[in-house]
Specification:
The complex is a heterodimer of chains A (204) and B (82). Chain A has 204 residues and is of the alpha+beta class. Helix content of chain A is 54%, strand content 12%. Chain A has 5 helices and 5 strands; from the N terminus they run αααββββαβα. Chain A is elongated. In chain A, 24% of the residues are buried. In chain B, β3 and β4 form a beta hairpin. Chain B has 1 helix and 6 strands; from the N terminus they run ββαββββ. Chain B has one helix at 23-38, and strands at 2-7, 11-17, 41-48, 54-59, 71-76, 79-80. Classes of the chains: A alpha+beta (204), B alpha+beta (82).
Chain lengths: 204, 82
């Protein structure tokens, strides 16, 4: 009797497991997706969704948009150096930010090149049109520039602040500040040069 | 006026374009503007100061958009990164 009951219980358990398996799998997948969304991890872009040509065209469009929004000095700075400098406005003492694509915003004091900290901020597009939340590089820079020039305080309050050197190596930041200083010197010098104009030399 | 949205893998996309003085076009611009804000986007207008400094202005309603604005750019909302 006990053997028969035991066998029946085993068979019943096996049958229930088979029936419950699909819904169990669905529940596990839902839990996994929620965990991924909460942890903020990016879904890896499948290889067939990544198109280098499309990304290049997107970046070209983004560069054109950035160029149309910032002034000529900022555009040439970004084109030549790969980052933008935006002056801070919340303090009487001069300070500025270096804005890199898809990296934290680096605050520093230009007179001493002392680095104040990194502000980590992202602009994730949750609609993931091609499987990724990442904007093209120049659109990311433009978004940071817009946020800094429109409402610096709100951006700084929203960003996660870290000590300098967490994501942008201090040595790289120092090198970039030296490059920026050289770039500015060359720019000033080239503006001071008097352009030669045909016919401007008086005849003897 | 053009309503643009920046998108991953695409750059900017023209969502709507029209003249705010034309009622039908105004309606389309307004509906698009509201849809993007409801989807969690930020709306920015690139501006220029009298000193020639370029900056941007964030707007939260279509009424705040100057009638002579050439474009409004929609961005995904900022989030603190890691």
């Amino acid at each position: 009797m006990a053997l028969a009951l035991g066998t029946a219980a085993l068979v019943l358990t096996a049958l229930l497991s088979v029936l419950a398996l699909p819904s169990l799998a669905r529940s596990l997948e839902t839990v996994r997706q929620r965990l991924v969304e909460r942890s903020g991890h990016k879904r890896p872009v499948p290889v067939d969704e990544y198109d280098p040509g499309r990304e290049l065209r997107a970046e070209q469009r983004a560069r054109a948009l950035l160029r149309s929004c910032v002034n000529e000095e900022e555009w040439t700075m970004y084109r030549d150096l790969g980052f933008l400098r935006v002056w801070g406005t919340l303090d009487e003492r001069p300070y500025a930010y270096l804005v890199y694509p898809h990296k934290p915003i680096l605050a520093y004091v230009p007179s001493t090149n002392h680095m104040l900290g990194e502000y980590c901020i992202e602009f994730p597009d949750r609609t993931r049109p091609y499987g990724s939340t990442r904007l093209p590089d120049s659109d990311d820079v433009l978004a940071k520039w817009v946020a800094l020039t429109a409402d610096e305080r709100a951006l700084i309050e929203q960003a996660n602040m870290h000590l300098a050197g967490r994501q942008i190596r201090v040595a790289k930041a120092r090198r970039d500040l030296v490059r920026l200083a050289c770039w500015e010197r060359e720019r000033v010098a080239s503006h001071r040069r008097v352009p030669r104009r045909a016919g401007s030399v008086p005849a003897l | 006026m053009k309503l643009l949205r920046v998108k991953p893998g695409h750059g900017e996309v023209v969502l709507a374009e029209g003249d705010v003085a034309v009622p039908e076009q105004y309606g389309e611009l307004l509906a698009t503007f509201r849809r993007e804000l409801d989807a969690g986007m930020w709306a920015a207008i690139p501006t220029s100061t009298h000193l020639g400094r370029r900056e941007a202005e964030l707007v939260r309603s279509f009424e705040d958009v100057p009638a002579d604005a050439e474009r409004v750019i929609f961005f995904p909302r900022a989030a603190g990164g890691g």
